[in-house]
Write a structure and sequence with these properties.
This protein is an alpha/beta fold. It has eight helices and 14 strands. The chain folds into two domains: 199 residues, Spore Coat Polysaccharide Biosynthesis Protein SpsA, Chain A; 53 residues, no CATH class. Helices cover 32% and strands 20% of the residues. The chain has a seven-stranded mixed β-sheet with strand order 3-2-1-4-7-6-8, with helices on both faces. Strands 5-12-9 form a three-stranded mixed β-sheet. A two-stranded antiparallel sheet has the order 10-11.
């Protein structure tokens, strides 16, 4: 199946994006096209990406009638329209710039799941994740379900929030979908609604619309295990004796895709080490 990986970045996210690009080149069993949506990159950054055989597309605005937070927001508005901006593929694998691949088997699972169900994604639900949520694991506050319900309500009202607001959040930062999946029109419609009703922070509108498309509109999807898209703000990974980032609870499986969600992408953190102690380090791709 003809597959493409798509990401997006502005100049501020380029360092993280470069780690993702390097991880793809290091882990892929064979070449796979990688396209980046240019949402404000600098000329030298574009040159570097071209040297890594990464293609660039500059998307336009897919919606109107809302207050634009910045050019970077095209990464959100273009996401429900990937087959339009990057045509000619049968399978689309989206990976956020603040994520990187440690184990390619996660990529294989996303593609296999979407091949069967049309969409493959990961719920932020795992036996290692606590019920609370926050920007980093050591700064958790509200219950995840309370927070998610409030976000859904802000974009889609109390009725939709009552139906899906207490269900586990489905992360839209890493997912796969077939070109003919019903996800694309459903997601586009849901995001249009979210942008037309939002009054404050639009940042979560795209992910909330993704959840509405899957959970409220009923687009079928294959849920993948958390190690395929590990949300680091939910629980710190563990460093094993081989230096890999692994699940912090037994059986300590190596993480497939490390997603530096929230503020875990900023600076160094005390990451637990298997056997005891911590290591002060960044979660960025080490290569």
């Amino acid at each position: 199946m003809k597959t493409v990986i798509i990401s997006a970045a502005d100049s501020g996210f380029f360092q993280l994006l470069s780690g993702l690009v390097k991880s793809i080149r290091a882990r892929r069993p064979e070449p796979i096209p990688h396209c980046v949506l240019d949402c404000g990159l600098e000329p030298d950054q574009r040159t570097w990406l071209a040297g890594q055989e990464v293609s660039l597309v500059t998307p336009d605005w897919d919606y109107s009638g809302f207050e634009v937070p910045g050019v970077w927001f095209k990464a959100m508005t273009a996401r429900p329209h990937l087959p339009r901006w990057v045509p000619g593929y049968e399978m689309y694998l989206w990976i956020d710039a603040d994520a990187w691949i440690q184990d390619w088997s996660a990529v294989a699972k996303f593609i296999a799941g979407a091949s069967e169900a049309g969409v493959a994604a990961v719920k932020e639900a795992d036996h290692a994740y606590p019920e609370t949520i926050g920007p980093t694991p050591d700064r958790h506050g509200p219950l995840s379900t309370d927070w998610h319900g409030a976000v859904v309500k802000s974009f889609f009202g109390p009725e939709v929030a009552a139906k899906i607001g207490r269900l586990p959040l489905i992360n839209s930062g890493v997912f796969a979908a077939r070109a003919e999946s019903g996800l694309w029109p459903a997601w586009s419609d849901a995001l249009k609604t979210a942008l037309s009703t939002a009054r404050d922070n639009l940042f979560l509108s795209e992910q909330t619309a993704f959840n509405v498309a899957l959970l409220e509109y009923g687009v079928p999807f294959a849920n993948q295990p958390a190690w395929c898209n590990w949300a680091c703000n939910r629980a710190w990974p563990l460093i094993n004796s081989a230096g890999q980032l692994v699940e912090p609870v037994f059986p300590h499986r190596p993480l497939g895709i490390v997603h530096m969600t929230g503020e875990t992408k900023k600076g160094s953190h005390p990451i637990p080490v298997q056997g005891g102690g911590t290591s002060l380090r960044t979660l960025e791709y080490p290569g």
